[in-house]
Amino acid sequence: MQSITGGTSMSEIALDEVSVLSAIYCERDEFALLEQSEEKGILFQIRIMVGDRSEEKSLNLLFQLPPEYPSCPPVISVNSEQLTRKQCQDIKQELLQKASSLVSEPMVHQLLLWLQQNVANMISLEQAPRLASTSGNGGQRSEDGTWMALLLIDHMRSKAKYIKAVEKWTSELELTGRLFLGRLILILLQGKRRQIKEYLHLLKKTKVDVDSSGKRCKEKMMSVLCEKPLLEEHKQLTAFKVKEFSSLEELRKEFDSLGLLKLYQEFVNTLL
Q1: Average pLDDT, the chain
Q2: How far apart are CA 119 and CA 115, in angstroms?
Q3: Are 215 and 41 contacting, i.e. CB atoms less than 8 angstroms apart?
Q4: How far apart are CA 143 and CA 192, in angstroms?
Q5: Are the C-beta atoms of 170 and 161 separated by less than 8 Å?
Q6: How far apart are CA 202 and CA 24, in angstroms?
Q7: Alpha carbon of 167 to those of 162, 170, 175, 187, 193: distances in Å?
Q8: Could you give the CA distance from residue 235 to residue 213 in angstroms, rounded to a whole number?
Q9: Burial class (CB in 10 A: 0-12, 13-18, 19+), 47
Q10: Were 178 and a residue from 142, 188, 189, 206 both cysteine, which residue would form a disulfide, CB within 3.0 to 4.6 Å?
Q11: Among 70-79, 124-133, 198-207, 243-252, which is the least confidently predicted range?
Q12: Smallest Cα–Cα separation from 179: which of 240, 90, 103?
């Protein structure tokens, strides 16, 4: 794959976004950087799976980010050997319409998540009856259920910006949980395992903080304390909230109220 490098007029936002996308879609044939120039911008392809697990469909999406991006939407092409030309066109039109509402901010990852969540509504039931069925599968593996992860953040120099990024990503990925701020900085996440994985990639590959000299930097000191399926005894959270605590006892009580006291005792106590 070609390296992703900057140019004098190419948007740093676009370069950062493509770098993040290449890290998220890192499996074989998931991401390909096809062209990069100051005149045409960045051209790349992403392959994703859509639909329920009983009959997933493979989609190839071609994105061209013009030099003016994200002040203008990307050029998008959609193709699939498992869908008709009309279905691909329908998906393309829906993506372009969604993109028009996201102008001025990096949008490709958000578009892909939105597509995976809404593809059944873009294709008629007669054309793809099995794509529209996303519930009632009692035989799903544990990986398909709700997972949780507990992350330790070493520091936040640009606190407001960092929190804004965390809240944005959890909203886009439909993750719930808590950001605990105090003597320790902890992020508790609940949601689909793949979405948690994508969150971790975003946190590691995006310039979310600043270094000691004030320059934007990536998160290099984050630790994953645990990642496992959510058990029945655990409280399933309905939103992502930022919680500040003034004492470790207050933090312990917050974990206890969520039915996660054992998690606190096993992973947080050891940090003290």
Answers
A1: 83
A2: 5
A3: no
A4: 8
A5: no
A6: 8
A7: 9, 5, 9, 11, 18
A8: 41
A9: middle
A10: 188
A11: 124-133
A12: 240
Please state the pTM of the whole predicted model: 0.54
Confidence of residue 51 (pLDDT cuts 50, 70, 90): confident
Report residue 267 CA to chain centroid gap: 25
Contact, 17 vs 205, CB < 8 A? no
The pLDDT tens digits for 9-28 are 457 889 999 999 998 888 88
Distance CA 261, CA 272 (A): 15
- State the helix-helix crossing angle for 85-100 and 108-122, rounded to 10 degrees: 130
Give the whole-number percent of the chain exceeding pLDDT 70: 86
Q: Is 192 helix (H, G, I), strand (E, B) or coil?
A: strand
Residue 269 carries which DSSP code? G
- Token readout for 153 is 């953040």
Q: Rounded distance, CA 107 to CA 98, Å?
A: 9
Closest C-alpha to 186, from 209, 154, 162: 154
Residues forming beta bridges with residue 43, ordered by sequence position: 35, 64
Tokens coding 234: 């655990």
Per-residue pLDDT at 142 exceeds 60: no
Per-residue pLDDT, 212: 80
User: Is the Cβ–Cβ distance between 111 and 142 less than 8 Å?
Assistant: no
Cα within 13 Å of Cα(115), Cβ side: 28
Place of tokens 């000691």: 212
* Residues 222/203, Cβ–Cβ less than 8 Å: yes
Model confidence band, residue 128 (pLDDT cutoffs 50, 70, 90)? very low
Show the beta-strand stretches assigned E in the chain: 31-37, 41-50, 57-65, 75-79, 146-153, 176-181, 185-192, 207-210, 216-218, 223-229, 240-244
- Residue 238 identity (one-letter amino acid): T
Cα four-point dihedral sign 225, 231, 233, 237: positive
